[in-house]
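Thread: Modeling a multi-component assembly for a lab meeting

Hi all, long-time lurker, first post. My supervisor asked me to bring a structural picture of a complex we are working on to next week's group meeting, and I have zero experience with this. I have the sequence lines for every component (515 residues in total). Could someone generate the structure of the whole assembly? Inputs are pasted exactly as I received them:
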Amino acid sequence: MSARLEELLVVAIAGMLDGLGHVAVGAASPIPGAAALLARERSGGRLRVSLLGSERHSAFTDGGRELFDCAGQGRIDAFFLGGAQIDGEANINLVGVGDYPRSKVRFPGSFGSAYMYFVVPRVILFALEHSRRNLVPRVDFVSAPGSSPPNVYRPGGPHALVTGKAIFEFDRARRRFRLCSVHPGHDVDEVRAETGFDFDLAPEVPSTPEPDAVSLALVRGSVGAAIAETYPGFARRVLGIGG
Amino acid sequence: MTAESAATLAARVPDGACIALAPDYSGCSIATILALAARGARELHLVAVPQLGFQGDVLIGAGCVGIVEAAAVSLGEQGAAPRFQAALRAGTIEMRDATCPAIHAALQAAEKGAPFMPLRGVIGSDLVPNRPDWKVIDNPFGVDDPVLVVPALAPDVALLHAPMADREGNVWIGIRRELMLMAHAARRTLVTVEEIVDGRLLDDPALAAGTIPALYVEAVACVPAGARPNGLFGRYPPDRAALAAYAEMARTEEGFAAWLGRQLATPEAVGA
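Re: Modeling a multi-component assembly
Sure thing. I ran the full set together rather than chain by chain. Output:
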């Protein structure tokens, strides 16, 4: 295949951001960051992108709290979260494996997930790894729940789960993922075998589209150059940009 | 202003103090962190604003820490924070897991002198049952609207490093306004700076907007390169090779001890 997996993911995620007003991307997220910058490019600059860790692509001036205050007001339309564990109800765990607090494996912590998952309308879960190790029947610690009782204020929540093998949409009413596409080189049986939770199937599960030529050229051109400011290693290794 | 140093600042931090610390990308007074390790500080309560990196790991490794309150602890690009991980496994520190905006909200309550702050979200997270100091109440202005409230958090000390201060003790932090929040919320603020400048920072509105007024600041020490090996916004980037070397050595207790011994071997490292 002509496009690398990372490039396919960048273009696929950018497609989920088209038409939005403001997308924020947290730290250590080169692929979502590049996707947001691609969506901005395709919007003719109408999409506002705030990349944490970037000086050029972030307009915040009120310290670490401003992203969260902005999100709480509804000024952020989409955000990305990961998870050392993600389960079939879209609960995410960024804290540890095993019985908290004496976790067998300890991860950095919940960061802003317990808040952003509630207030950002379109949260895209992103995990390059796709295995029963990280996609589990039930997370060991709920950093942020995938759904809430009806009386809990929650304009936001999970929109999709993008992995290295497939793309799922989240059905908030059914509280279940639905497999929408499988990346080239993988198939539904493999995805089922490598996923620790049950999920629904879309009526048809196509192959995730290869990036179109225009988008791919942007990713390898101006978008790649822009993401290189924050993620020079990623730009060099994956996109062949920079020294 | 009397001549302060990283060592004199560290001497102003009593054992058991609650200390607010900035993230690695902001303003970290590594010089004072090393001086705290050198003086053998004990049972410190670290409050990460809102996540903790290199400076927290060093203090934990040096046995200075009793409690860590943070939304996350890691060395970022360099991976897991090794001494934090080891201390959790050994059970020698108490971890109070949080989420970023809850720490900001708790400090904002202290900033206002208010008893608590409400915050959307978080309900249903396992953070809540593990934080007995957080409560879910009914929104008194709503109908059947549960909302999280967190108590005001006023650290004993805010410890930070900044590009410059003037002779009155006004400290310029630019857009790194989590440092302003820390200074407003804490009872006392201790600062190291790259340089002490002539003139008064508050006289220029362009600078004044990004300046912590001296009324919040207890002491300033001029310690050039005081954030290294971390970077300092607008001045120098992080020393990635030095941080990677730390991450490698700190994987074992012996390696950490050797690393710390080397840091403390030079007088300027401890600000003496």
